[in-house]
Amino acid sequence: xxxxxxxxxxxxxxxxxxxxxxxxxxxxxxxxxxxxxxxxxxxxxxxxxxxxxxxxxxxxxxxxxxxxxxxxxxxxxxxxxxxxxxxxxxxxxxxxxxxxxxxxxxxxxxxxxxxxxxxxxxxxxxxxxxxxxxxxxxxxxxxxxxxxxxxxxxxxxxxxxxxxxxxxxxxxxxxxxxxxxxxxxxxxxxxxxxxxxxxxxxxxxxxxxxxxxxxxxxxxxxxxxxxxxxxxxxxxxxxxxxxxxxxxxxxxxx
Amino acid sequence: xxxxxxxxxxxxxxxxxxxxxxxxxxxxxxxxxxxxxxxxxxxxxxxxxxxxxxxxxxxxxxxxxxxxxxxxxxxxxxxxxxxxxxxxxxxxxxxxxxxxxxxxxxxxxxxxxxxxxxxxxxxxxxxxxxxxxxxxxxxxxxxxxxxxxxxxxxxxxxxxxxxxxxxxxxxxxxxxxxxxxxxxxxxxxxxxxxxxxxxxxxxxxxxxxxxxxxxxxxxxxxxxxxxxxxxxxxxxxxxxxxxxxxxxxxxxxxxxxxxxxxxxxxxxxxxxxxxxxxxxxxxxxxxxxxxxxxxxxxxxxxxxxxxxxxxxxxxxxxxxxxxxxxxxxxxxxxxxxxxxxxxxxxxxxxxxxxxxxxxxxxxxxxxxxxxxxxxxxxxxxxxxxxxxxxxxxxxxxxxxxxxxxx
Lengths: 254, 406
Description:
The complex is a heterodimer of chains A (254) and B (406). Chain A has 254 residues and is mostly helical. Chain A has helices spanning 3-24, 28-48, 52-75, 92-112, 123-126, 131-142, 144-165, 177-186, 226-231, and strands spanning 212-213, 219-220. In chain A, α1 (3-24) packs antiparallel against α2 and α2 packs antiparallel against α3 (52-75). The longest helix of chain A has 24 residues, at 52-75. Chain B has one domain (3-274, 292-317). The model of chain B is unreliable at 401-406 (pLDDT under 50). The chains are: A mainly alpha (254), B mainly alpha (406). Chains A and B meet through α2, α3 and α8 of A and α4, α5, α6 and α15 of B.
């Protein structure tokens, strides 16, 4: 038994088991992990079949990029959710079973006709100058036109996705961090140069809808976020004013 | 003779022993680099750093590791158990795999066997490193998802976005090296640097690789995935004990792996610096390992230096930098390298090559000056807020208040 056949008989059952288990997993992320594993075993088979470039690219592109993007989306779904098993489109189950049986039949009849135990033909001539060089000669030599057309197609697809997913920004221009910083210092007063005051913290309350108190006991409207004002979530700030302190206005005069 | 030819007649025991040595080297190097990092960062911050356990505090990291292993291993109730356990295993196993294709010495005598301290020399060796790195991301992403908690999820999302984006810049920075060396195998790339190291010939590629390798390993100033100020610990917030130790190990082995790859691609790998070639005749070739080791440690020091110097980037700035600066610059640079390479292969005259290089330099300078002037104008516009009233200063009017109290 050669090393290659040991590799095959260890990994092939694992790959088949993983791909079957992928279908029966309840959580989408578990299915995604199993699919990633199937892709990696396929890559190992490619490498064992003397196609190292294809094997490595399979991992980089499919496992590393495509599957990772899938996972990226699935992660937004959250850990607790599982797919709903309710049949939403009527009759989809019957159609699915019929299609699967048909596909399985076609596949089985093809595989049954396969002629095993032959020596591979043409591999050594294809890999004569090295696997990578052989592939490069085909891609950028004989099939360069097809290669370029496909790359143009992919770029078009990417641009299309960008256009479809693009959302218009709101009309209200947002000032940059720098502009806001400058405006803070050049405004009417530089009282807010270091930022707006935080909300009030008292012995009884600690909440963002409570105003901070100024040194003279007046509540500060600036200390409450504008959003809360507009939503009407703020209690009347005047009720928090402290009495008994000398009232002074902004210039400090009595 | 190429590396792959030398490695071909390695008997099984040599391969097994080399694999074991790589593992031991990585683990010991992790322990030492944790200690080294703490000492160096301490010096940069005018402190002493760990100096109690062992001579110079050398076994501090070992003591910490033992303590970590003896801690209680907590699996949160909300976690997805299987994936929660799988994630650190993925992280810790894939990080070692990159070392299989890194040549750490020249030809040496290994217990009577002529060989190179390198497990295998794949024709697609450098892509293989990229592949293992891309599997390693799964550890981080799955850890973030399976913890069943908000901060780890955010950390996992950030880090997957970050690593995917910077992997593109990293992969593109390899292309210059591939074009120049005419091969993707690490052995051939080192052989192609026999006259000039790639750091001189392909400096833009080197600069982009160094930036993206910091992004790839989630290290400061690009450590947004575990930003302690915003995300507690990021993807590993819920991990404790040995599982956390595995993530820790993976982070440091990854740093060493990307440093080793940088050494291989741009600093001539284990070959001696120019003028020190005579050292290879001492120790029967093993001296090359010292050169390799020194280069890797240099990169490690650079990592620590960055951490001690730079503040963390904001997430949107970081992504913008990766997609809008590193990748376009890299693509333009690849065009230049490919053109120069083709010109030398087609036997263009020295004058033509010099003219092309000069043209490129002029174009870059022109683009930079245009960019500078538009930026300056935009800044002037930003400064020009218009006429403003004299600001009143919120100086407390102390004397009047005093009078009022009286």
